[in-house]
Amino acid sequence: MRRSGLASIWPGFFTTALNEESLDIVIANSSMLEKGELPPSTVKNFPRPTLLQIHGIPGYPPRTLLFYDTAGEVFERASAVSRYASFVMRAHTVLFLVSIRDLENPAPEMARLLNTYIIGLEELGGNPSMQNLVVVLTQADRWLPAIDGFPKIREHLVRGSIAHLANSGNYVQTLQAISSELRYFLLTKVGAHEFVHAAEKFFKSTRFCAVSALGAAPMGHKLQTKIVPKRVLDPLIWLMEHSLTPWQRFLIKLRS
Length: 256
Prior knowledge:
13% strand, globular, single chain
């Protein structure tokens, strides 16, 4: 976010790390990406969060983000969720990141992973009906060329510049429309009926978005092209949207 150019379209926008460790992590990861290198894989442990505060997103109050960089395999087993990811119990909104191209059988695997998360959350004493779920389809650059009949999704990803974020109110309406398109895509092209139905049954709300963090697949831990991220802020906008209280929504409508 620091080098995305957002401050040029959102007057008053800036981010601050809240401790030295968080600042070091942000700077180190940004430096690696600029050199065409990827950060190392996350080890399986209970991580210390990276703390980042965001100011100046139009329509939203300042927010503090806690990034827990947890190893992906933690969410393969409910017992591991309980042991290494107990922080999910306090989350109001959950980002469910999944790369459908990396799954041999996407539909049943997505349903299994969601079921695993629900079991792990409930074993911690949490309740999925108190959480909003944002399903993030990652590495969109890999599966985008294969989809037909979804021009809105394609256009949204291809035209993924930050300029479209200038009016955050209108952008949320766009995200809602894209969420509906992606839901239909998962049902008709991926066959993820059980996943979608379970998500909508168990969680307070379910939204869908798609991102491409790099713009092209890397070779090992090396990037082959300059990073061209697409729609990577969509999950953040959903997080901000779900964080609003009814009173804050009312005040925002009065000001708009």
